Amino acid sequence: MTDARRKHVPRLHVDRTLTIGDTVALGAEQAHHLGAVLRLRSGADLVLFNGHGGEYPARLSTLNRKSAQALVLEHRQPRRESPLAVTLAQAVARGDRMDFAVAKAVELGVAAIQPLFTERGQIKLTGERLDRKQRHWQAVARSAAEQSGREILPVVHAPCRLDDWLADAAGERRLMLDPRAPGGPVEGATTPTSVSLLIGPESGFSDQELVAARASGFEGVRLGPRILRTETAGPAALAALQTRWGDFG
Counting Cβ atoms within 10 Å, is residue 19 exposed (0-12), middle (13-18) or buried (19+)? Predict the structure, then answer.
């Protein structure tokens, strides 16, 4: 099969084990998208992936308004995942700004996304509303992974308070965007394989939050002389990190 991106073959995420020769049942929403939106028919080519590595060229065996099935034909490993595992810790933003930040981070190779509640953030979510938002952001990540050729589906973790996350933050390098910082990250003796990247809300981190982040090992960095919006900062920083330590070189 020719490369899916050149042929515009649809890529679909399926949450199950995939094996060559299996017939995979697709959901009603996926069936509607394939038939009503893309106007495909039985026999059309697909690419399936389950988010655990590699992808599976397949062929639609049946398709109707409410269901579809696809036959798995082969397994391949195009190796599109970055060697740099970045966790984006993103302050929750209003409206579609958070959707934008999540989608672009996935396209740029992020490994995981941690939404954060901060002192100056104006988003208050609890209970079922919080659960719905997390599911929505995960769906945004899934759609971006399908479109961008990802083999791994990044997890959008349950939102939490910044101070709670800082207590368990990992990463060989820990970076936070700070427009008052003197410059970009200083080159270390070795290239890191993991980075935690901390992005503040529209109004920035409070002084107390900056002190707490530095106490947890985060270096303040800035990207040029301009102040970036919160939904722009994460993708811009990810692109810079992929250029320096990832797979943009």
Answer: exposed
The average confidence (pLDDT) of the chain is: 92
**What residue segments make up the domains of the chain, in order of their start?**
4-72, 85-245
**Which residues make Cβ contacts (< 8 Å) with residue 247, sequence separation at least 6?**
82, 83, 84, 109
- Does residue 230 contact residue 198 with C-beta atoms inside 8 Å? no
Sign of CA dihedral 243, 244, 247, 249: positive
Mean pLDDT of 94-121: 95
Using DSSP bridges, classify how beta strands 112-117 and 68-72 pair: parallel, antiparallel or unpaired. unpaired
> Contact 111/156 with Cβ under 8 angstroms?
no
Question: How do residues 128-174 score in pLDDT, each as one tens digit?
Answer: 888 999 999 999 999 999 999 999 999 999 999 999 999 999 999 99
Whole-model pTM: value is: 0.91
CATH class of 4-72: mainly beta
User: Cα(240)–Cα(36) distance, rounded to whole angstroms?
Assistant: 39
In this predicted structure, what is the pLDDT of residue 164?
A: 96
Contact 107, 153 (CB under 8 A): no
Q: Which fold has domain 85-245?
A: Alpha/beta knot (3.40.1280)
